[in-house]
Amino acid sequence: MTALPIHRHEPERVPRNARGIADALTPEAGKEFYAELLAAQPDEAKGVLLRWWGRAMLETDPGRQRRVEAALGGTLATVAVQDMLDRRRAAGLPVE
Fold it and tell me: Source organism's superkingdom (predicted)?
């Protein structure tokens, strides 16, 4: 079974490589990212890239400000964890 994102970005907003991630971050965050990546052991580098890619995707999300305001204002739509797990099971997706 392969895992695919629910909402694909074509083309991806942030390329999944060090340069793409750094370019999407603020200059300060980019320096922090590169410092962490360079300090990582080889077996840790993939985790560093994935974590920072997620942050870069969040920071470049066109609807970010609206979602932040909704979350802070208490109007962000939410879903119960059990409902989300039930939906994933029904779709044949992993829930571990």
Answer: Bacteria
